[in-house]
Amino acid sequence: MAQNLSDNVCFTLYSATNALVRAFRPLLDAYDLTYPQYIVMHSLWYKNQVSLKALAQDTYLDSSTLTPIVKRLEAKGLLTRKISPEDERKKIISLTEKGVRLQQDAAELTATLMARSSMSLERLEQLRLLSLELRTELAKAEAS
Amino acid sequence: MAQNLSDNVCFTLYSATNALVRAFRPLLDAYDLTYPQYIVMHSLWYKNQVSLKALAQDTYLDSSTLTPIVKRLEAKGLLTRKISPEDERKKIISLTEKGVRLQQDAAELTATLMARSSMSLERLEQLRLLSLELRTELAKAEAS
DNA sequence: TGCAAATAAGTTGTGCGCAAACTATTTGCG
DNA sequence: CGCAAATAGTTTGCGCACAACTTATTTGCA
Asked: What is the mean pLDDT of residues B17-38?
């Protein structure tokens, strides 16, 4: 017997994430960023001057996904990509002045959006922990 | 002060969903389905012979996303699309024999995957309810 | 009744997300 | 030391996800 879609964890997670990205869009438009681009900027605000590989690990995105995102951010003048002198296979990604400055304006967008959702901080924190647990478990299962 | 990405609900939700779709891929490959295609089949197993519009509402996907997905499922012989005689703007989507038969094999894939995650049913149910709540709240905020 | 507004579905263009394949370095081991 | 294996990043191809726009049909109201 098939169940209603929303009775299914996987589907609710999937559709909630789509709704989230959709809700972010108008907020991010003001900064000319997409949500994945915002994720990359966020990662760099926390830790700057990293290799693409390190950025991939932090964002859980594939390097083949990241390369074009990072190129677009470079085209917008938010970061630079320089070959590492120590290891010429690596590219070091560094925020520009403009990229650093963006943090002041844009870093609090998540808080803005979450406030608008009118969910309590406790429930959002529960959601964060459960998502984190699922991601970790699935990564474990994948490795084996 | 920028925080670590995984301290952020939005990001953990986003990366957990990517991990979920990634984990589904090898399971769904056996049935020649993508995860969004599986969602559409799931919806039809629950309620067959619906318009594209109704399918869009059930899956929370845009009609412009759904049209190509449904066309691919039609090409695989899993469903048909017929113009409604009552309202010629509508297309009625109906499972074929083959599409109905697929349910027996594929309907339990979610359970299979979730079992592999080794999260308790209680925590998965919490995650479902919180995702549902967020999706609902964001949809509300969007409408206003 | 006529016709503007609403509705259903499809098209186009852009940006992911990722598997698979490729190029260019570096590593490490026989 | 030499060279196969590993590693870092890019390219290609496909399928979403969705905004903006288009086409075709139906609705509703002046």
From this structure: 97
pLDDT (average), residues B80-109: 95
pLDDT in the model for residue B141:
79
- Nearest-angstrom CA–CA distance, B60 and B54: 10
Q: What is the CATH number of the domain that holds A83?
A: 1.10.10.10
The answer to whether residue B11 sits within a structural domain is yes
Q: Name the 3-class secondary structure at B72.
A: helix
- List protein-proximal bases of chain C (any atom < 7 A from a CB): 7-13, 15-21, 24-27
Query: What is the layout of strands, in order, in the sheet containing A91-95?
Result: A50-51, A91-95, A79-83
Asked if the structure places residue B111 within a domain, the reply is: no
Instruction: Tell me how far apart the alpha carbons of residues A13 and B16 are, in angstroms, rounded to a whole number.
Output: 8
Per-residue pLDDT, A3: 85
How close B108 gets to chain A, by Cα (Å)?
9
Tokens of A48: 């700057």
Q: Provide, in whole angstroms, the distance separating residue B144's CA from nucleotide C20's C1'.
A: 44
pLDDT number for residue A21: 97
Q: Between A and B, how many residue pairs show a Cβ–Cβ distance under 8 A?
A: 180
The two structure tokens encoding residue A41: 């900027």
Burial of B42 (0-12, 13-18, 19+ CB in 10 A): buried
Average pLDDT per consecutive 10 residues, chain A (144 residues; last block may be shorter): 89 98 96 98 97 97 98 98 95 98 91 91 97 95 68
Contact predicate A127/B127, CB 8 Å: yes
